[in-house]
């Protein structure tokens, strides 16, 4: 077996780089890691007017089939519309009405008024409202708990 001598000087640097990749990855936070430890809902300005968002500014949506009843979003639906859940009490901040905030007992899903809350996977950054009006069943929520029906 022949070893080329040109690669040997670079070998220590290559091994050091590989070793550095083997360390622990940084911790992901919020929805990336699962259920966030501290969950807030608040009102933020958007192209739709003032709407309900989470603590990071991501838009929260309601599914019209869920009005005044537990969530009816199956596994395929949840893949596109993940529920806002919390390990602790959801807090109302910055214009959100604390009297409208609650949680579904069985799932810890956050509720605002009569609407269980969801994200839309098509929203990439805070302020996106790409889920607005999808299938004429998904809508952002106003501070008073009513659906924002404009596009």
Radius of gyration: 22 Å
Mean pLDDT, to the nearest integer, reads 78
* Number of domains as seen in the coordinates: 1
The end-to-end span amounts to: 69 Å
Query: What is the tally of beta strands?
Result: 8
Could you name the ranges where pLDDT drops below 50 across 5 or more consecutive residues?
A: 1-35
Oligomer: single chain
Q: Please state roughly what percent of the residues sit in beta strands, choosing from under 5%, 5-15%, 15-25%, 25-35%, 35-45% or over 45%.
A: 15-25%
Element pattern in H and E: HEEEHEEEEE
Given the helix and strand composition, which structural class is it? alpha+beta
Cross-sheet strand order for the largest sheet: 2-1-4
Protein described:
By secondary structure, this protein is α+β, with helices and mostly antiparallel strands. The chain has one domain. It is 11% helix and 19% strand. It has 2 helices and 8 strands; from the N terminus they run H-E-E-E-H-E-E-E-E-E. The protein has helices spanning 11-21, 75-80, and strands at residues 40-46, 49-54, 61-63, 91-92, 101-103, 110-112, 115-116, 138-140. A 3-stranded mixed β-sheet has the order 2-1-4, with no helix packed on it. The chain has a 3-stranded antiparallel β-sheet with strand order 5-6-7, with no helix packed on it. It has a two-stranded antiparallel ribbon with strand order 3-8. A hairpin with a 2-residue loop joins strand 1 (40-46) and strand 2. The longest helix has 11 residues, at 11-21. The relative contact order is 0.20. Mean pLDDT is 78; it is low at 1-35.
């Amino acid at each position: 077996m022949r070893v080329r001598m040109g690669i040997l000087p670079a070998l220590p640097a290559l091994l050091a780089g590989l070793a550095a990749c083997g360390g622990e990855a940084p911790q992901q936070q919020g929805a990336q890691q699962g259920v966030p430890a501290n969950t807030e809902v608040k009102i933020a300005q958007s192209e739709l007017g003032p709407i309900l968002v989470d603590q990071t500014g991501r838009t929260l949506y309601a599914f019209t089939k869920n009005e005044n009843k537990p969530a009816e979003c199956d596994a395929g639906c949840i893949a596109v519309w993940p529920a806002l859940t919390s390990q602790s009490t959801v807090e109302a901040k910055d214009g959100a009405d604390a009297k409208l905030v609650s949680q579904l007992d069985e799932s810890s899903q956050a509720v605002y008024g009569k609407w269980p809350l969801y994200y839309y996977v098509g929203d990439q950054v805070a302020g996106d409202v790409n889920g607005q009006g999808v299938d004429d069943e998904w809508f952002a929520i106003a501070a008073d708990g009513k659906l924002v029906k404009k596009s």
